[in-house]
Write a structure and sequence with these properties.
This protein has about 775 residues and is of the alpha+beta class. The protein has six domains: about 130 residues, Ubiquitin-like (UB roll), CATH 3.10.20; about 170 residues, no CATH class; about 210 residues, no CATH class; about 60 residues; about 80 residues, no CATH class; about 30 residues. It has 26 helices and 26 strands. The protein has a seven-stranded mixed β-sheet with strand order 5-2-1-9-8-6-7. Strands 16-17-20-19-18-21-22 form a seven-stranded mixed β-sheet, with helices on both faces. A hairpin with a 5-residue loop joins strand 16 and strand 17. Helix 13 runs parallel beside helix 14 and helix 21 packs across helix 23.
Length: about 775
């Protein structure tokens, strides 16, 4: 529970924020707060609202964006006034210039009907610090001299508070708390039992009370001792704990374990906190990371007789996740140490990060030495760029660069976490770092999206040393979106299908036939294709070498990995990806050492298929290096230039069926004419180096601190229901297009008969006699003519 008192001395304000104490309610209804640990927040009359919120957020662990501040007007305890801007804060100070006190409440920004979860009671220029009303954050200690039949003003506030804080008693509780009784009946064992902190004792006490069916209240609570008794009138049960001198150990010194109340007080209803629910579900969440809030609600109801709503379960899950995984906020502060450990444990790796002027996180980049070495020694000069939106607490985007190994498997080269993918500067920064990880002499082909920021970044960083192939998936997506609403689902599906065929076409004639097929469906679509820069996506016009890879969906491996780690703190997510990489490199190295073939398995299979086709071909002998091969078509093969007129050899790097027929005719070894990147030996070089574990991911030990400060980026809470994760963008083909709605009346697209404008217009015309007469006259004129 957190209480804040504000004193004004001349022009200075001091907010005294307390936790761990107790409320005391006298017979006249007045309340005071005593005990606990205090925190001071300095203010003055020029303080900005955002600064005040920031101080409260840092002190109590709240998010500034999720915080609302409200207060009661003098003499009005029914209407809460919002403080949303600096003028509001000054106005509040002016209202209470001569008042003894003012009750200010801080609450989460979950909607106007939510009641406060933190009570702050600032006084005015007077030095009084008494509290007349307050709100309990957790199962707050309350001591009162009232009888059970009297109304406690604090109870009134609690009843209007977050349902998570005070839950109605369930009549089936006795039948539903069996698991709690079995699990928690010995969390309190008696005198001399020890705890590491008062928080651990309070948690154990809360569970113990549920297991044994009673409620309790605090008689005394401060930083050195806690005294608790049963809430039932006349029940002798009580317990007293205190801190062991010169240590942090908490010990039970006295305890009367006898109850005479028979759990009567429990029928008033148990209070459940987010932390309490989080502790309950923590172990299940460990084994089932996809434990859904609605399942949490059902399980807590069934096993403990406590009713939660969806939002309460979602917040409790967040607390449990942080307990298991560590703090999201702390993970950002550990990035400098984490980068240092990456380079220490994996020498030759590149790990770096950037912050903004306010020290908030901007971006992080890593490429492990095993990836850098593998790309240089065994991979084709071909890099795929893609991005994955991260549905985590602080959002962000994962930028990835992958290559293709000799078996056409995904080879992760590097990745980065950035605060905003739409920021062109982030792509430029990522590609600049990537260049130092790919220092090869050959021109590199990039397969990526065609956004201007990405296009310009590739050109600026690599200049004439690269080629940019547009990912056909994005080209097809743009075609589909630009034509949506003007063509039927089937027409658009055929156009996208023809677009893919045009991209793969090995000859100009085949390309022209495909685009003519599009033109037959729509001249407009034909013009779109012609103006879409085919030199960047069609095989027949592309000047670089992309080995017939037309899409950047090599990032699918990362999509699968990130789906398991996206909700982890940033350092843990990065380390999960590192672990996946480590396992991938090791597994492929072990597997490739068992191979007995010259080429990698998939390339051997492709070459075998080409050999089967070659058996029916006729080769005309020649004294030169150029041969004529007859089959369904007649092709010319130049073995000295590794060239065939069918273009299959040049596009893939493997001899086509016509070239294989020539080799068999002249007795040449076909493996001598295969790209070196497809050799099993090159594949083994790709995975020759290892990726090593990173110890102490959670941060440095004492004395190893790093002076660089990194704070989380501004949180961008996604729209929609809390806890409902947005699906990661999948690397998919657009050959299958979602069927578009079609009106059964006018046959138009994008609407149905209920919303059809043509039907509405017809109805309006029929209800207007003048319009109807004109229409009838026109119809008659048409008939006469």
């Amino acid at each position: 529970m957190y209480i804040c008192f504000i004193k004004m001395a001349e022009k200075k304000l001091i907010a005294i924020c307390q936790s761990g104490g107790v409320f005391r309610t006298d017979k006249d209804g007045s309340m005071t707060y005593s005990g606990g640990e205090a925190y001071a927040v300095d203010l003055d009359t020029e303080t900005k609202v955002i600064d005040f919120k920031q101080d409260l957020a840092e002190t109590f662990g709240y998010n500034v964006d999720d915080m609302l501040i409200k207060y009661f007007l003098p003499g009005n305890k029914k209407t809460l006034i919002m403080i949303s801007k600096d003028k509001d804060l000054k106005r509040m100070i002016n209202f209470f210039a001569n008042a003894d006190q003012v009750d200010v409440f801080v609450m989460p920004n979950d909607g106007a009907t939510r009641a406060p979860v933190i009570s702050t009671a600032p006084a005015s220029r007077s030095s009084r610090t008494t509290v007349s009303e307050a709100v309990v954050l957790a199962s707050s200690p309350i001591e009162t001299s009232q009888t059970d039949n009297e109304t406690n003003p604090l109870d009134t506030v609690i009843q209007n508070d977050d349902p998570l804080l005070s839950l109605p008693y369930d009549s089936n509780y006795e039948n539903q708390h069996n698991k709690a009784a079995i699990q928690w009946e010995n969390t309190i064992t008696g005198v001399e039992q020890r705890f590491s902190s008062f928080a651990e004792f309070r948690e154990a006490l809360h569970k113990f009370s549920i297991a044994h069916g009673f409620r309790y209240k605090y008689k005394k609570s401060d930083s050195h001792r806690v005294s608790v008794k049963c809430k039932a009138e006349g029940c002798p049960w009580k317990i007293y704990v205190s801190r062991l001198p010169t240590t942090h150990i908490i010990r039970i010194k006295k305890m009367n374990p006898e109850h005479t109340c028979n759990g009567v007080a429990a029928k008033a209803g148990y209070r459940a906190t987010k932390g309490w629910v989080g502790n309950i579900i923590k172990e299940k969440l460990r084994s089932s990371p996809n434990y859904r809030p609605k399942d949490i609600v059902a399980d807590i109801k069934r096993e403990y007789g406590v009713q939660l709503n969806y939002s309460q379960a979602w917040r409790a899950k967040g607390i449990a996740k942080e307990q298991l995984q560590g703090s999201y906020k702390d993970a950002y502060s550990q990035l400098p140490y984490f980068c240092q450990k990456i380079t220490e444990t994996n020498p030759g790796s590149l790990a770096t990060f950037d912050t903004k002027p306010d020290s908030s996180f901007h971006r992080f980049f890593v490429s492990f030495h095993a990836s850098i070495s593998g790309f240089q020694n065994g991979c084709r000069p071909l890099i795929f760029l893609d991005d994955i939106p991260l549905d985590a607490k602080y959002q962000g985007t994962l930028l990835i660069a992958t290559a293709a190994d000799g078996d056409d498997g995904v080879f992760p080269l590097s990745f980065a976490v950035v605060d905003d993918e739409t920021d062109d500067d982030n792509w430029f920064w990522f590609i600049s770092k990537l260049k130092s990880c790919a220092p090869i002499s050959q021109p590199i082909t990039f397969v990526a999206n065609f956004t201007k920021g990405l296009q310009d970044s590739i050109a600026k960083v690599f200049g004439g040393e690269c080629f940019h192939a547009y990912c056909l998936r994005y080209v097809a997506e743009k075609l589909n979106n630009d034509l949506k609403g003007r063509f039927s689902h089937e027409a658009r599906r055929l156009m996208v299908q023809d677009l893919y065929a045009a991209a793969y076409a090995p000859k100009v004639e085949a390309f022209e036939q495909c685009v003519q097929d599009i033109k037959a469906i729509s001249p407009e679509a034909y013009d779109w294709v012609v103006n879409s820069e085919p030199q960047h996506w069609a095989n027949v016009f592309f000047n670089g070498t992309r080995y017939n890879h037309v899409t950047s969906n090599f990032g699918q491996l990362f999509y699968d990995w990130v789906s398991d780690a996206v909700e982890l703190p940033i350092t843990h997510m990065i380390d999960v990806l590192r672990g996946k990489l480590m396992e991938l490199v090791y597994t492929r190295r072990v597997d490739s050492n068992r191979w007995t073939t010259t080429l990698t398995p998939s390339m051997e299979e492709k070459l075998k298929n080409e050999s089967l086709k070659a058996r029916s071909f006729q080769v005309l002998p020649s004294e030169s290096s150029v041969f004529e091969v007859h089959g369904e078509t007649v092709e010319l093969v130049d073995i000295s230039q590794w060239d065939c007129s069918c273009k299959g050899w040049q596009l893939t790097g493997l001899p086509c069926c016509h070239a294989v027929a020539v080799f068999e005719c002249v007795g040449r070894n076909v493996y001598d004419y295969c790209s070196r990147y497809f050799m099993a030996e090159s594949y083994r070089k790709t995975y020759a180096e290892s990726i090593y574990p990173i110890p102490d991911v959670d941060g440095p030990v004492e004395g190893e601190g790093i002076s660089v400060i990194v704070t989380p980026p501004p949180a961008k809470r996604p729209p929609g229901k809390p806890g409902r994760r947005a699906k990661l963008k999948q690397a998919r083909s657009l050959e299958l297009i979602r069927r578009q709605m079609q009106c059964s009346k006018c046959k138009g697209l994008g609407h149905n008969k209920k919303t059809c404008k043509e039907v509405v217009e017809t109805h309006e015309a029929s209800s207007n006699p003048e319009v109807l007469t004109i229409q009838m006259d026109e119809d008659m004129h048409t008939d006469d003519s």
